[in-house]
Predict the 3D structure of the following.
Amino acid sequence: MILKSPPRIKVLEALGSIADGRVRKANDHYLVASSEGDREYTVRVNGNNVSCDDNGTRYRNYVGYPIIAVLMIEGRLPFDQELANSLRGIPWRKLNEEMKSYSKVEELVLKRAEERGISRARIEEFVNKVMEDVRRLRLNKVT
């Protein structure tokens, strides 16, 4: 099954997870800790075949942020350290649960990044590029 494109906010969440040091290689897979540190997702990548036990990938069949983060680390998707640093320390799950709207969380996160010196236009351009590359990869979900 080809995975669907993720919500745009998942690109930002992936950057934040890398900046927070929550992605680590473990033998033939990666482990990605959640923003609250209470969950850990297992990501496996073999070419364009991917698996991850996060809710987005498992239940909604889109490319979840842990997969995006791993592909950034592997150099298969663009990565921007300065953008990532501007997204450090964001409590993603808490915000998503409180606001119940990815667009509202994205707006808050964009404002925070702007306060940290990153222009909204630069972020939008970066997210568009990553989304385009995710679609181009046509990642296949395996279990």
Summary: The chain has a mean pLDDT of 96.
